[in-house]
């Protein structure tokens, strides 16, 4: 997915920028970048790979090279960024959290207009550069950002560092979040603003959340305040997977806390479940909140029967190679044999994508003495690939275990998808039973879509649930937004 952080202050912003960006590290694994602006030195930028190291260790020794009272940082799952641009709009830097599915089409149009692409790496198009080129075609920043919204298929939120403040523009359907924070220095009364993908980045730096940027809204942050350059659009489709998996437990989106949603979701499932078990355990990290809620709802005690070894395995999918990612995922989880032996255990997890990691974990649980392994998942089965956010490394829908099973049952992985996605149908029940068999589970249940939506607390129409039921607003409705 990716995440970003920006800050503008009346004093040097580098420390806030460094630590604020680091608080977005769980959102991406490929690259990171920082850029600052100083009136005398101009723009300073650095980009590093994160595939073999961590954000802090890559940038800490370079901090003395940055200066200025405003800057941007990005954790990217896609292209190298920030991009620095000189244009008729002025000199600026831009970072994005985006998934642009028609990159090649846009690139070809730009090349036909005698524009050029200069930020390619490994012969791949840099989608942040495409965004910058589209912005440059506008008469103003607002005009250019709306050109991005109109042209892309997918999603795009962005931060733009200008010589006159930071512009924040949220995806026109709000699929990815942007939150604004503010702090006032004690004694001096000096003001600073920050804008981030994660509100988690605010408290320890002294910022208090002001508000979310709305879908399609464009704002400019200066130390003097917030200027609304374009008001929010009326439709929102924020990604439900933020609360299921991506979001840090302390973060809030649309004012709704991630951990509270996970606990409520688990409690609803625990109240309805009739499994006989001795203990409940969450698969760290994103399964823990659900497991605590499930324990409350089912009155089955919560115990830490499996733990995450954080000193050297803090992240689960850093390596670029899928086989190595699976190995890392296995190595970071340590079963507690003393708690597992001869026990009937309910394990709560966020989702099942390929199933490889869970299958390996289940074998480990049985090998460590578990008598029964029941798995409860905090979202419905992933039946549709996501065209809006890159929340998995899947290159094809057939990498989803659900689609493999549908193909094996139907001879076509696209047949009767609506039936397999609907809780309680014969097709759904057959698919879930087969997933449990392939993963070696004693039983398997998924949260219903209705319970997931209820636990989030937003109207169904305001949440993107495409990966579960294939529903979403998309570019076919763009006339509703752009006229």
Walk me through the structure.
Helices cover 31% and strands 25% of the residues. A hairpin with a 2-residue loop joins strand 7 and strand 8. It starts with a strand and ends with a helix. The radius of gyration is 23 Å and the shape is globular. Helix 7 packs parallel to helix 8 and helix 7 packs across helix 15. The chain is of the alpha+beta class and 483 residues long. It is built from 17 helices and 23 strands. The strands form six sheets. Strands 3-2-4-1-10-9-11 form a seven-stranded antiparallel β-sheet. A six-stranded antiparallel β-sheet has the order 5-6-7-8-12-13.
Which short descriptors sum up this protein?
seven-stranded antiparallel sheet; alpha+beta; 483 residues; six-stranded antiparallel sheet
Overall morphology = globular
Low-confidence stretches: none
SS-derived structural category: alpha+beta
**Assembly state:** single chain
For the residues shown, what is the average pLDDT? Answer: 92
Approximate helicity band: 25-40%
| N- and C-termini, Cα separation | 29 Å
* Strand adjacency order, main sheet: 3-2-4-1-10-9-11
Rounded Rg:
23 Å
Tally the helices. 17
